[in-house]
Amino acid sequence: MPEQAEKCLEVRGLGAGYGSLQVLWDFDLEIGAEESVVVLGPNGAGKSTLLKTLLGLLPARTGSISFFGRRIEGLRTSQRVRAGIAYMSEVGIFPELSVEENLLMGGYGLPRARLRRRIDELCQLFPEVARTRRGPAWKLSGGQRKMVGVAKALVADPRLLVLDEPSAGLSPVYVSSVVEALARTRREAGPALLVVEQNMKFLAVAERVYVIEGGRLRFQGTVPELEADDSLRRAYFGLQGA
Ligand SMILES: Nc1ncnc2c1ncn2[C@@H]1O[C@H](COP(=O)(O)OP(=O)(O)OP(=O)(O)O)[C@@H](O)[C@H]1O
Ligand SMILES: [Mg+2]
Fold first, then answer.
1. How far is the C-alpha of 166 from the C-alpha of 7, rounded, in Å?
2. Any residues with CB less than 8 A from the CB of 100 and at least 6 apart, and which?
């Protein structure tokens, strides 16, 4: 099928920054139509800046972004979302709303009946969301918040799900349950996945890995290739469990 061979995302020579600070330099990234990619990198490396630029929350200074063959670097964030990119920021959800309202917001603009059906489907996929669906979001634990954030991003049935450090602030048990939820999403023929992380547990859902350091691409390859690189292994796996 041509869809299979299609690229979901193709980023070439991307540069971005804030005022006089250039953060991202000449960055290349590719994601296949059904592929799952994890971007690793230390604090301040430019991971969130990369995602913000992909979503149009920050303008690209150089380079191009193609989404299923269509150039999107000039589009507004709302247009990129409508094209099928869903994004969970480091913050995730709105605590002042109920869980249900958060989910409804994820599908804002969809026909009501379809939206209800989709939320029911996601509640089957994420039992934690089903359990807390009727309650206020501020009562959720950090892990439940992340789960609702992922479900909310999936409501609109995106073609690409972009997650910024879903493990941030979570205990190891919760990190494992978020990883499992993503693995379940993948098994259900979910969207292509782009996850920015510092937690190596997410490599369980990665078909390919990128490493960003100092705003530049340091490595791209499979997980075994990452493990085979001595300095990267020390840098990223050496700290695991510490
Ligand atoms: N809104 C902003 N204005 C100015 N500088 C910023 C802004 N956001 C980020 N930066 C700077 O850009 C650089 C990269 O930040 P970014 O948030 O992309 O890093 P990160 O890889 O996501 O880090 P972390 O793992 O801590 O989330 C840092 O030097 C940061 O201080
Ligand atoms: Mg960040």
1. 24
2. 119, 133, 134
Rounded to whole angstroms, the Cα distance separating 221 from 224 reads 8
Q: Does ligand 1 come within 6 angstroms of the Cβ of 39?
A: no
Nearest CA to ligand 1 atom 2: 18
Can you list the domains of the chain with their CATH numbers? 2-237 (3.40.50.300)
Give the Cα separation of 163 and 177 in Å (integer): 15
162 against 89, higher pLDDT:
162
Would you place residue 3 in the very low, low, confident or very high pLDDT band (cuts 50, 70, 90)?
A: very low
Compute the C-alpha angle 160/162/166, nearest 5°.
140
* DSSP 8-state assignment for residue 68: T
Q: Which ligand has its closest atom nearest to the C-alpha of 43?
A: 1
Segment 171-201, tens digit of pLDDT: 888 888 889 888 988 888 789 999 999 999 9
Considering the chain, what is the average pLDDT of its residues? 90
Cα distances (Å, whole numbers) of residue 92 to 145, 197, 210: 7, 14, 23
66-75, 150-159, 165-174, range with greatest mean pLDDT: 66-75
- Nearest ligand to the CA of 214 is 1
- With 0-12 / 13-18 / 19 or more C-beta atoms within 10 angstroms meaning exposed / middle / buried, residue 136 is middle
